[in-house]
Amino acid sequence: MPLVALTGGIASGKSTIARRLAEHGAVVVDADQIVRDVQQPGSPVLADLADAFGADILRADGSLDRAALGTRAFGDDDAVARLNAIVHPAVRIESAERFAAAFAADPEAVVVYDVPLLVEARVDDPWELIVVAHAPADVRRHRLVELRGLSEADAAARLASQVSDEARLAVADVVIDTAGSLEETHRQVDELWRDLPGLIASRDR
User: Fold this and answer.
1) What pTM, to 2 d.p., does this model score?
2) Is residue 62 annotated as involved in ligand binding?
3) 105 annotated to bind ligand
4) Angle at 85 between CA 11 and CA 57, to 5 degrees
5) Helix, strand, coil tally for the chain in percent (to 5)
6) In the listed set 67, 93, 119, which residue is the last one of a domain according to the structure?
7) Has 54 been labeled as part of a binding site?
8) Where is the signal peptide (predicted)?
9) Domain range spanning residue 192?
10) Tally of structural domains, the chain
11) Binding site annotation covers 161?
């Protein structure tokens, strides 16, 4: 019942890797989706966020205005710390429940946790393997501008706000280079899936 962490910077191709692993049969648990789920209207997390950052981060229907929250927290280390102190514990609990449910349904499952903030929040958890999606910063900046429509300044700010590539690569057991073609990325993921038992066994030594 291997538990694999998959991380990478923004526009690193992490979602492409997760989809390919799912095609091979992995159960992918998406940290970003869990964040959205624990911030649903009426949730304790959303109430705590409104207390900490102001009721105006809520829309008229009671849902979270993510842009408003981002504006309030972005670029302010203390605000980010407050935000993380509210959200991360709830995500940790919910993710553990989803891992347990996946293994209860299939004790032999390969569960992949797709988690952007691994280095920042979850690096010391008991992962059997840590996989890092990696592409150079200029490639990711180009993707943010060309594929997601961000301005050059916004793309640069997003990249600068994240932990360094060096910090992510330092914790990697496996690095998937996503700078090339989709076919090249898929080939590396296919090799990872094939070699997964041996990679986990060698890491445990």
Assistant:
1) 0.90
2) no
3) no
4) 75
5) 60, 15, 25
6) 93
7) no
8) none
9) 1-26+110-200
10) 2
11) no
